[in-house]
Amino acid sequence: MELVYRQDHKQSLVTFGEPLNKAVPKDFGAGRHVIILTNQKYYDRSFEKITQLFQHSLDIDWYICRNQLYSNNMQEFQDILAFLERFPRNQKYLFCSYGNEGVTALTGFLDQVSLFDSSYCCLSVSLRSLMKALVARQEIVARDGRGVLQVANLPAAIFFDQTLTAAQGDGKLVDFLLLIRCGLVCDQSFLQGLFQNFPEAQQVFSRSFVSLVPQLASFYQEYQESIESYGKLFELAFYETAQGHLLSANMKRFWGILFHLLWNHQSVPLDLDMVKFCRWLQRVGLPLTLPKDFSFTEYGIAVLKVAKDLPPAEIYHKIGQLRETRYPTNEELVNLTDTYHEIMERI
């Protein structure tokens, strides 16, 4: 299946529902030097399979990024620029992303700013790397995930092979978290559909998400900035706390989304049963326990600090219906502690 995705006068052809060896055209990359950006685990798993997709290319090289969520950082960008110095400028290039979200963003940024005659494609290893490819703003970030450089770019082609996502284990739960984020920001009926079709972890890990791709593309065409920023303020605050290192990058993102939701709900009550919603999060496998001795006081201070460098957060009066944008107050962050503990007691 195919769809044409458009954003900011750019467009991308999204192919999904087929394995890569059928979805990628036989002459894809022909006449170009293909440089594949990836993470170590994907290189180890699929080197031969991915190389075979570009049999008509002039040459193929791989660049292996660190296994970090935010591998689109300044150090990685500088390293790949050094790596590219040995390549001639008189060839045409195809930069291919075959890695996590950070790799996708790094590839899109590189294609836009490099001095090579290049184009850019994405072989999505997960639903979240597909979502990142749909974002027109590709960033280089600081170590804590804050954007420092950005350009507008879309891949010429995006390929989503659901057989790759089936083998990612807990990564599929992160994909599901980002589907929930889309529902919270965009559409209550979409969120309700996730609740009904994926009531427990078994369904999350056994059922394909491929049928949701057209809806996701539609959401990202209209709401990508809101989707990507939802929970970001509360996520980045964890990097400023003493115990933040006890949470993985994806768990910081999960708690960022949840605390954004709880802050919204205590400020402007949503049409959402929060206790029932949190019980569902537990059933699908998202843990609701913070590290021992986690300090909400320290965390609240961190939120206020990070807020100085970020746009105001969005508050919704109903799921998918924006009310306003503003920063949380100190009093609201203090109350967030009580809101969290009250819900935990009831689930």
Write up this protein.
The protein has 347 residues and is an alpha/beta fold. It has two domains: 2-165, Rossmann fold; 171-346, Dehydroquinate synthase-like, alpha domain, CATH 1.20.1090. 47% of the residues lie in helices and 20% in strands. The protein is built from 15 helices and eleven strands. Strands 1-2-9-6-5-3-4 form a seven-stranded mixed beta sheet. A two-stranded antiparallel sheet has the order 7-8. It starts with a strand and ends with a helix.
Short account of what is shown:
The chain has 347 residues and is α/β, with parallel strands linked by helices. It contains 15 helices and eleven strands.
Q: Could you list some keywords that capture this structure?
A:
single chain; two-stranded antiparallel ribbon; 347 residues; 2 domains; 20% strand; 11 strands; alpha/beta; 7-stranded mixed beta sheet; Rossmann fold; Dehydroquinate synthase-like, alpha domain
| SSE sequence, one letter per element | EEHEHEHEHEHEEEHHHHHHHHHEEH
Straight-line distance between termini: 41 Å
Q: Return the domain count.
A: 2
In CATH terms, the superfamily of the largest domain is Dehydroquinate synthase-like - alpha domain
CATH architecture of the largest domain: Up-down Bundle
Fraction in helix? 40-55%
Task: Categorize the overall geometry.
Answer: globular
Instruction: Give the structural class.
Output: alpha/beta
Name of the top-level CATH class of the largest domain: Mainly Alpha
The neighbouring-strand order within the major sheet is 1-2-9-6-5-3-4
- Sketch the major β-sheet: 7 strands, mixed
